[in-house]
Amino acid sequence: MSEKRLGMLIDLGVCIGCNACTVACKQENEPPLTKFNTWVESWDAETEDGRVTRANLPKLCNHCENPACVSVCPTGASYQAEDGTVQIDQDKCIGCKYCMAACPYGVRYMVEESGDVSKCTFCHHRTTEGLLPACVSTCVTTSRMFGDLNDPDSDISKKLAEAGDKAKGLMEDLGMEPRVYYIGLDETLAAKPVSAVHKGGNVIAPYEGRQ
Amino acid sequence: MVWDGIVAIDLFLAGMGAWTFIFAAFACGRDDAARKAKLAAVAVAVVAVGLGALILAVDARGGMMHPLRFVHLIGNLGSVMAWGVIFISLFLVGAIVCAGMMLAKKQPPRALEIVTAVLGLGVSLYTGVLLGTAPAFPLWSLTALPIAFLVSAAYTGYAAWGLATRVAGGGSAAPSWVSRAALVLPVAEAAALILLLAVVSGTSGSGAAAAAASVANLVSGSQAVVFWGGVVAVGLVAPLALAVLRQRQGDKAPAWYGLAEWVCILVGGFAFRYAVVMAAVPIFL
Ligand code: SF4
Ligand code: SF4
Question: Hey, what CATH class is A6-205 in?
Fold first, then answer.
C-alpha cells in the first residue's frame, strides 16, 4: 500500500452551496465558457419531518478506481496517473467523445477551440507542487477534504475511517469505484425535491411536481 | 447530447457495408457471368465502410484539427473503438483487393473472401459493442444492442447487395437461402428489438430512470415516429410483406417489389441507428 491514491471527501452536512469552489476552479483552471470542472447542484428538499431545507451536491470527476472513460479511450489519451488520478493527455486526444459517452457522471466536455476533451484534474498542477486543489483550499466551510487515501495517517483517511459506512461515492452500483466520497449522501438524495435542480443559477432539471 | 445523428450514419454505413460484402461473397456465383454483379456489391461495401470511417474521423474534432494525433488511434487495445479501427482497416484492405482482382477479370481466392467476410462480421459487431460499452447511456445495452445491430446490419447488407446486383444487371440466380433470409431476418430483427426494449426496461439501480426515459422516447416520445414509422413499419413490416408477396407470386411478381423491399430495409436500418442514438438519455443530468 505504498502507492499514492489521491481522493476527496465532501461533507454535505456543512456544504452551504455558496459555489466558492466553482469560482475558484474557474479561476484556477479556466475551463471554457459554460463548462465547469466542478459545480454544485442545489435544490429545495423536504425532509421527513416536513421541513424544507436546501440540498447541495458538489460534483466533479470522481477519479474512479475502475474508470470507464479510461478503458474505452482508443488512443490512451485518458489514463490513470501514478497518484491514482485520472488524467487526459491532450496531445493524444482525437476528440472522439467515447469517454464522454462512457462516464456516467457527466463530468467531461469537449473544448471546441482545440477539439479535445477536458475535465477536472484534481488540480494536478497544484498537487504535484504540494498544494491542495483550488476547490478544497477555498471551501469556506472546509466541507471538502483532500489527500492520500492509501496513507492511514492522512486527514482524509482518518475522517473516512471515522465516518465508516456513512461515507459513500455517487452511484457506486455502476462499478466505477469513485474516489470522491460524500458524508450525508443518502440523506441528501432521500429528501424529496420540491424545486428545480440548479447548477450555477441555471435550471438543469425542471421541477415537475409544481401544483 | 454526446453523440448524435452523425454517429448514427457511421454505424449504419459500417454495418450495412460489411454485410453487403458478406452477401456478395456467399450469394453471388463464382463464375464469370456473376462477376459484374458481385463487383458492384463489393464496390458498395468498400464505399459504405470507407465513408463510414471517414465520417467517424471527421467527427473526431481533435484529430481533424491535429491530424498527427491519429497515430495513437490504436494506442489502447482494451478499447472497442481501437478494435473497430483494426477491423475496418483490414476489412477495407481485403475488400479492395477482391474488387481489384475482379476488375482485372480474375476471381478473388476463396480464402481471401472468407477472411474479409469474417472481418466484416467483426465490423458489424463492433458497431453495437461500441455503444454497449458506454455506461452513461443505459439504452445501449451490451446484452441486447450488439445482437440487434448485427441482425439489422445483415438485413441492410442483404438489401444493398440486392440493389447493387440488380442495378449491375443481375448475373447468376441467388441461392435459395437468400429468399429464406428475406423472411427470417426481419422476424429475427423484431425479436431483437423486443429483447432490447425488455432488457432496457428491466434496468435497475442508478441507470433505471435514464433507461425508462430512453424507452419512453423510443416508443411514445421524441423518437416514436422514427421508431414506429421508420424502424417498424417501413423497415420491418413493409419489406417482409413485399418479400412474402414476391416469393408467392414467383416469376409473375413485378420487378419493383424487390426494389421497394430493399429501399424500405435501408431506410429502416438507418432509422434504427438514428432512433437508438437520439432516444438515449444519459444517467447524468
Ligand atoms: S468520474 Fe467519469 S471522467 Fe472521472 S474517472 Fe470516473 S468515469 Fe472517468
Ligand atoms: S475524446 Fe479523447 S480522451 Fe476521450 S476517448 Fe476519445 S481520444 Fe480518449
Answer: alpha beta
